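Q: How would the structure tokens look for this protein?
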Amino acid sequence: MNFGLILIGDELLNGYRQDKHLSAVIERLQAKNLSLSWVKMIGDDHEMLVNTFKDSFSSDDVVFSFGGIGATPDDLTRACVAEACDVPLQLHEEAQSLIEDQFGEASYPNRILMAELPKGARLIPNSINQIPGFSVKQHHFVPGFPNMAWPMIEWLLENEYSALSGEVVVLERRWFINGQVESNLLPMMNELLHLHQGVKLSSLPNTEKRHVIDFGIKGEKNMLENASRWLEDYFVKNNIDHVIQRKDI
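A: Here is the predicted structure in token form.
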């Protein structure tokens, strides 16, 4: 199962605010032996958001979406999700009660707009101010505020995806390869991927230290062990200077 991330807001694209959610989601997924497959950053553009949601809803991916669920005119997420799913926005009675309990008469006329959710939406509890996020299918929509959003993601992982934790443990191992030009290692990389299908690699030449390559492979534990043994043998047979830097992360 793939996990995706949608980050919403003009303030992210114009640099006024720096995203903090990407690293936080990766950390929380890795704690459950899960990984992030993709991320998209979208501005406050109605048409683009609708198309983005239509595309992601057409997949089986689990998607966490941050931002745009408030009550101001630039908060477009609720309406765009409804349009993408071809369902109406409607007052969610439980969300209405939560907002009224928290804010009383001050819930009206504005805060209560946050209880207008796509038909059939499920609530995500918000321990900070009780205004919930919401879920539609395997898409989960939370505020852009980290102190609210991150506990909500943790709640989702624990309550809706705990069965996935540890299903397949994906690990990564990395080496520093010294004294080599990256292009000369292409045959090795191609042979590695051919012999150990299911393993992914990354090759990152050091731009400050000449002929130093940060090289890594990633995969399910048994695949990683087999590929690592093959790679170590290749290094030795071809007199390639190498130092392991990170093992099984």
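The chain has a mean pLDDT of 94.

The helical segments are 10-13, 21-30, 46-57, 77-85, 93-103, 146-159, 186-195, 221-237.

Upvote if useful.
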